[in-house]
Amino acid sequence: MKKLSVLFSLVAILTIASFTAKAQVSATATSSANIIGPISIVKTVDLVFGNVAVSPVLGGTVVLDPAGTRTQTGGVTLPVITGSPTAAKFTVSGQAGTTYAITLPASVILTNGANNMTVDNFTSTPTATGSLASGSEDIFVGGTLHVAAAQVSGLYTNAADLVVTVNYN
Fold first, then answer.
1. Domain spans, the chain
2. Model's pTM, two decimal places?
């Protein structure tokens, strides 16, 4: 019986040793991509600082916030006849439920012949990031107009457009 038990043990060991263990296994996954529509931006209202008066000896600024409210500093005054000041308005459209980054220009030069003024310190509502919860959103943009002492009167406009850039996050 002992010999039979040894024989079965030997057969069992040889049988187990003859099995090869699989060290490598595989699985599969599905690949996909969802292409969303491009983001777009359209200007709907221009940035207008309105009527501004300046001292002959002291320059100043006009700050127009994204809500369209003006404030002045230095030798600048804001006449009662305002001239319809308004913040710029842009409409952004794209994939509903996404967010986007807003990039405002560093500055814009307004010219009237050989005369110029700088607009800078642009601000927007929304600020740095917008949301296309329903597929579109309006951006309102304001800035600071720098007016020199005795600035020559007349209509000043920008030679290069006020460029607002948006991009999906």
1. 37-153+161-168
2. 0.81
